[in-house]
Amino acid sequence: MQWTLVIPLKPLARAKSRLSDTAHDGVRPGLALAFAQDTVAAALACPAVKDVAVVTDDALAGRELAALGARIVTDEPRGGLNAALNHASAVVRDERPETPVAALNADLPALRALELARVLDAAAEFPRAFVCDAAAVGTTLLAAAPHQELLPLFGTDSRARHRASGAVELTLDGVESVRQDVDTGADLRAALALGVGPRTAAVAAQLLIPGQ
Questions:
Q1: Would you state the pLDDT for residue 19?
Q2: Within 10 A of 189 (CB to CB), how many other CB atoms are there?
Q3: Residue 102 parent element (H or E)
């Protein structure tokens, strides 16, 4: 089974505000773009992924991610993360109703294609499934089988909310790169320790990160 991934990305100027202790205002947009580029590149290299649709209204991000091979879907609802994901998954399903769809965070700069493949292969066993983040509170991936609604509930305590919605939590070992999203300086250090993609590595090299 091959999946279509839907990756949401907010305008770069507003992205990653919680990294202010590590990256100043002039660096954060570039860092957010680098995260997304490395995430998309790893996703497109995954044997379980057919294609990637990025939902964003950021013109620069759209150009750069399209250049990597992603399809760009405009955020027509402009109603927040879950509305954007519902819209993008509907666009994908209108064209290919039989496709399985998974929402994936855009801030997984250490993502490994083979680890993502393991997660998606496991998700294929269930109508809906998800992976919690490294903090065990949020969600980094939510998958829906063909003819199943995605029903995204990202945001505060999304792990509990997705579980309560009936999605099965996947508890695989050895898929840390799928779990390690980056919201804070500590998250970035953890991702760097796993080994990030080349674009994130280049931007992070400009930062003074304690413990790096």
A1: 86
A2: 16
A3: strand 101-104
CA atoms within 13 A on the CB side of 27: 15
Instruction: Check pLDDT > 80 for residue 53.
Output: yes
Core vs surface per residue 75-95: b (16+ CB within 10 A) or e: beeeeebbbbbbbbbebbbee
211 inside domain: no
Could you tell me how far CA 2 lies from the centroid of its own chain?
17
Work out how many domains the chain is built from and give that number: 1
Whether 133 maps to a domain, the answer reads: yes
Q: Does a structural domain hold residue 212?
A: no
Say if 209 falls within a structural domain. Answer: no
Token pair 């998974």 in the structure block, residue:
102
Q: What backbone phi and psi angles, to 5 degrees, belong to 8? A: -90, 140
Q: What is the mean pLDDT of the chain?
A: 95
pTM value surpassing 0.90? yes
Q: Give the neighbor-by-neighbor strand order of the sheet with 168-169.
A: 71-73, 49-55, 3-8, 101-104, 139-144, 128-132, 168-169
Residues 55, 6 contacting (CB under 8 angstroms): yes
- The angle formed by the CA atoms of residues 170, 50 and 61, to the nearest 5 degrees, is 90
Tens of pLDDT, residues 87-100: 999 999 999 999 99
Cα angle 185-64-212, degrees, rounded to a multiple of 5: 20
Torsion of CA 28, 33, 34, 39, to 10 degrees: 130
CATH number assigned to the domain comprising residue 63: 3.90.550.10
Note down the domain range covering 180. Answer: 3-204
